[in-house]
What does this fold into?
Amino acid sequence: MTLARKDPFVVADDWWRGAAIYQVYVRSFADGDGDGTGDLAGVRSRLPYLARLGVDAIWFTPWYRSPLADGGYDVADYRAIDPAFGTLAEAEKLIAEARDLGIRVIVDVVPNHVSDQHPWFQAALAAGPGSPERELFHFRPGRGPHGELPPNNWPSQFAGSTWTRVPDGEWYLHLFTPEQPDLNWAHPAVRQEHEDVLRFWFERGAAGVRVDSAALLAKDPTLADAEPDDTSGYVDRDELHDIYRAWRAVADAYDGVLIGELWVPDPERFARYLRPDELHTAFNFDFLTRPWDAAELRASIDRTLAYHAPVGAPATWVLCNHDVTRTVTRYGRADTRFDFATKRFGTPTDLGLGRRRARAAALLSLALPGSVYLYQGEELGLPEVEVDPARIQDPMHARSGGVDPGRDGCRVPLPWTAQGPTYGFGDTDTGSGAPWLPQPPGWGAYAAEAQADDPRSMLALYRSALHLRACQPGFQGHELAWLDAADDVLAFARGAGLVCVVNLSAEPAALPPHREVLLTSDPLDGDGRLPSDTAVWLRT
Ligand code: NOJ
It folds into this structure.
């Protein structure tokens, strides 16, 4: 039976409650001018691919003017596209072209900090201590007899200190790198500016905004020292809710959607940001970080649904993004959790096992009620690349003293063709640039072109799953009922007789009674049972 895909612009109001959203890391997606860096021309040329994949929206990681000290999360001008990526006029064209294909665009706003090249920070440096320009940031005198010690002991999100001293002797706060000074969110001009930035992008057709580091903006005004595990001075402070209520009023005027990047482990406190007058949704990092373990995943699903329901927000399901280890690699390791603190070079990995599990995890997450985020290359089954340390650009690597491989391993430019010097990433007829991160040998085996006609490919699985998810009415509600199943088997029913079963045990599992097998992540065994590390969608 063929069912029509629901028209996303007809059910406009709450499209985000069940959307499949594809994350584009512009620098690594497709390189239209062949200079080695991905760009908007590259994205525009690949929009038909994304439409064919079946996604409802694209979230672009920051595409603004930036020195790229942290891959664009160091913004020098929120109203300009980085010249390496293109122009504002091109972004507007891209938004319109995507819309013509039924795909919405979500931009990434980075409110916690700016680039040290941002005019506000440059003005603050020039104006000196005590100036109004410095009040937009957190400048303080140092401690110690000569002010030679940082003002407090807060640790950086990227290892090392959170304070840097400027030549006149004052220090400024940066929760990330020194190139990312934190803004002072107690200052009305900071609030005003960001509300204007939201309007700027909504007026250019953006359907939503991903809010970077959304739990970090507000700081304890005393900037007091913290005990080792106490983050209350700068994470999840109550003042944030008022900021997001003001943002929601702006977004509502445009039917825009606000998506929080909230690393807040307490689910009750996390859900507070999703109250009806605050953010619309937030990434589910609880689910993302879980190991490949039935009890852990089931508990995370239950917790997610339980805490979202009272605030009326849809759950989201995320397996990977530009900050975390790619799924096929993570699931092929002895420790299948994701944890920033434990990333190391040379971790043994069984990619065959990881791939089976990643396929099963895809069917699990795409069957759950709510919206789902895919990270570019996930649909190709790309593994994490162990990038030559001499080529790593991610500041997490250098700031860890070279211990942490950082995040470049999931940011290697995509392969589009099986052959060619850049596997189709760049147009080598127009440019001569090698990709900004080296692609490993054999990368072409993962190319979209190499997978497109192979029904057993990861790409084929994602296309089929996204199509079914969009067309089957059973996926469109918000109900989920667990079914009896063996230990280490997850089985649940959605609406209209749809059932998902995921076998995380070592033994094959019998399927519940059913009328039709809609999709399997790998074939059933000869007895019609679900093999280990396999998922199935059934109609019962
Ligand atoms: C979260 C982003 O996802 C990450 O890539 C970035 O480094 C930090 N926020 C700082 O902006």
